[in-house]
Amino acid sequence: MTALPPNVSVPGSTAVLLPAADSLFNLTAAAQAGLGSSQSLAPLCTLCCCGFLNRTLAVVFMVSLAFAIVVGNVVTLTVFVQTRQSRTPQGYLKVSLAIADMMVGVLVVPFSVYTEISLMVTSAPPIWYQGSSTSLATSSSLGELVSPWQPCMLIGPVFAGCTFVSISTIFLMTLERSVAILRPLHKDALVTRRRTLLLILLSWAASFLLALAPLIFSGNFTLEYNECSRMCNYTPLLFGSQLPPDANILLLFPAFDFTLLGGTLAVNIVSFTSIRRYTRKRKLLSEGSLTDGGGGGGGGCPHRPSFSDIKAAKTIGILTFAFTASFSPIAVFVLGNVVGYTWCNFSFFAFWILTGNSCCNVIIYSVRDHRFRKGVTLLFQRDQSPPHGEKT
Questions:
Q1: Which long-range contacts (CB under 8 A, 24 or more apart) does 53-57 make?
Q2: What is the mean pLDDT of residues 107-128?
Q3: Mind giving me the DSSP string for 225-242?
Q4: Taking all residues of the chain, what is their mean pLDDT, rounded to a whole number?
Q5: Contact, 311 vs 275, CB < 8 A?
Q6: pTM for this structure?
Q7: Alpha-carbon distance 349 to 268, whole Å?
Q8: Cα(243)–Cα(287) distance, rounded to whole angstroms?
Q9: Pairing of strands 232-236, 145-146
């Protein structure tokens, strides 16, 4: 199998399957492809990826982002674990979301930092760089060819799986709030802790199974560290210049993302329509323009959601908007690949804007959730123990 030189582009109709495949920049792979030492390779990046200063700024940004993600989500987990009022289905879902975000800050971002520092301080890239499909195999003591272990085989599925967990958790949070808004009297019977924990486990299992699907159900894919996005991306094993016949399996990723985001948007529209209807009716009642006839007929509101349920639904709506906004650059990047554009610099911003969403949830909670702010205040107080005889 020959490696595809970096300056050979994948056809536009199939580029969507591989957002980062046409950004390979590997001199070793080029040598394997038969390029002479006198033949130079033009880098695909111009602003974000090339130059010592730009790499240094990128590393500083990555380190700061990793610190913000870890600290913010550790605070979130601590508050939710120590606050008894948070031991609810909604609280469990928030804990699941915080764990997925923290894994990005603990594993994914530090690996990119390590790789970038290695590329700056050493004259040669790591032996696993650009994946086992293009790197030279080493010879063992028994004379066998042994391919180096590719860390991206772990980091890539973790990032993809945590992204899918975040999407599915926000979808479950939206469903839980919609039940509280539309069926407040049946909320405790429909949304139980046991069902919520079961759904959380299923979402984690399904998300990571989907992240591993190209590797499990096909032998024509690998993961490589991408020079443009500074991330571990899925890459098909090219036969000459042809993609494998089962390359369409990567379409499962955008299909899953857009389906859940579309479902979340639809549920939010139904919930906010009900909230608006209830708010208008309450205003008319306060002005005396409408009489509350009680029961289920007329203009009455026999099943009114609580103020905390309405505020929580709005908070989750903001979470949905923030995640959609951070996911949109990736969608634009994919559409650009469909029409044949190669946006190396834009891929860096697209992938890292999505990564930056992992530290946004704690900011939204701090602004919107009074109980969370109170929990953070108690957490950072020196005397955190309540007065004797008082239960919190």
A1: 55/116, 55/119, 55/120, 56/120
A2: 85
A3: E-TTTSSEEEEE--BTTB
A4: 74
A5: no
A6: 0.76
A7: 28
A8: 67
A9: unpaired
